Amino acid sequence: MTSPSRVGAWALLLLITTACFPPGEGRDPPMGRVYFPVGLAVDQARSRLYVVSSDFDLQYNGGAVHSFDLQRLRDFVPRSCETDGDCAGSERCDTEPNDQNGGVASSWCVAREGSHAGTPCGVLGERVVASRWLEPGRCEYLDPSSPQDGGAPVQVDAVGVGAFATDILFRAAPSDLGLAGGDLVGRLFVPVRGDATLHFIDVRAEPSELECGQTGNDGKCADAYRAGDDPDSENTRDLRMPSEPFAVDATTDGRAIAVTHQTEGSVSLFVNEWDARTRLEFVTTGLPSRVVGVASVPEPAVVAAQGYNYQPGFLVTFRDSNEVRLLRYFDDVDQGTPTNVRRPFLEPSGTAVVSANSVGTDSRGIAIDAGERDACQDGCAGDSTCLQECAAIPLGVYVSNRSPDSLLVGRTRTDATPTSSDDLPMFYDSLPVPAGASRVVVGKIVDPGGNLASRVFVVCFDERRLVIYDPVTRRIEKLVETGRGPHAFVVDAASGTFAGGETGVSSLGYLAHFTDSYIGVIDLDQRHHRTFGEIILTVGAPIPPRASK
To answer: How does pLDDT run across 510-539, given as a tens digit for each residue?
Structure first.
């Protein structure tokens, strides 16, 4: 006989799977803390971290998007050191076991005097050792709405979105918008399963921050900031967005946006007008079922330099098929209409078979690394011949696959076209990873020489690991221990002059823990021998889901 608790669990799962939640019912989602986070994004200036919370357990009537001040957040990140000279004058380097550090030196800068003198975690305090298995990290959590040092909150804004958000994407607004754009900095795009729409949120200069027509005390985005549900005003094809939207990506300029649908063989195309609303324009159908991952193919710089006719592309992965498809974006104009109505569309343009794995089906995330090509193009100073040579440099393509759990390594193929590539990958290697391989992210760490270097990160949900793969040495160099349910990941890396005038290089990773609803901050600087690949800060109080209590 099935127990009542198991019946309840299955009922909850059914509701979540089918995304059946009547809009407007239930309690408003919390705006002061993340709740089942499913997506992360960092803006172009590295000033904001955007977190989207879902409503996975149906406790609330929707989710939320939170904006965190990254400079304020970095104030709480421990600073690694080897000697006192690496710290500020009011600090010393904690290198010897003593009573203040509990007998375990941290190699972090600590206060010389005051109530927290010598303590590695300062105002946050240290986490009980017994709890670090479920929630890795030495220090207690940082409250983003009311930080423990009494200063300004880390969270600067939040708005409400629909139930069951799945991802989030930021694109910067072009600099030539002028008065039409006002103080528009960029836009966030959030696929939402509950009402099968793509929410779009304007990011404006302070103090406005997030703008989506929200009114009243609940701070919910207005219907006008949801795309995909109004065929009369959005497109000429009488289209609505299909059910179960999942992953989202966009061209660099933010004009063409592709959204996958995890229970169908379809990909939705949205077109973003910076001085107007985002709208659904086309749905590509007839693809293998269960489309999951999507990655926008970076456009070679020679295209703009030479005026080549190049159609931007998206690579998509499938759970039920051992292949990667290339979809091309066409910004078509219907010449037969009096006003030359634009009718953009996405068209399948090629297929790459996944043969590097034993089965090859059940691919999840996909990421593209254009770092080598970008470095070449940066050195061309606009020279067309140089840019043409750079275009022949293949792009790295990485896919997480579960048959078996592995990271598939590939690259695009060069050919004799003007852009030197057909943008389709060829996979030549497969590396085993822990169970639950899901999202893949390309980002930069700081190497032992103090230089930024590309790495591939694979989130492994089931075994609570984050894989760090070096594409140059072709080896996995670190398995990061995470908390329960690692889900979304983003890298925050840069070199130059930071706030306060400090110069150098920096790299941190932000990992959304879905199960216990918090963000882990990971040290991605290999010069920090004791903490590289470790969670060094927890943002938000870890809260177990109700079913586990």
So the answer is: 999 999 999 999 999 999 999 999 999 999
Burial zone of 548 (CB within 10 Å; 0-12 exposed, 13-18 middle, 19+ buried): exposed
Two structure tokens written together for 199: 């929410």
CA angle (6, 8, 13) in 5-degree steps? 95
- What DSSP assignment string belongs to 168-214? -EEEEPPTT-GGGTTTEEEEEEEEETTTTEEEEEEEESTTT-EESS-
pLDDT tens profile 123-143: 999 999 989 999 999 999 999
Contacts of 14 (CB under 8 A, 6+ apart): none
Tokens of 30: 């919390």
Alpha-carbon distance values, 445 to 199, 407, 455 (Å): 32, 19, 7
The dihedral through the CA atoms of 314, 315, 318, 321 has a sign that is positive
CB 327 within 8 A of CB 347: yes
Per the listing, tokens 């939040």 go with 158
258, 254, 130, 142: which is closest to 202 by C-alpha?
254
Question: 201: closest CA among 186, 217, 215, 179?
Answer: 186
What residues contact residue 485 under an 8 Å CB cut-off, 6+ apart? 461, 464, 513, 514, 515, 516
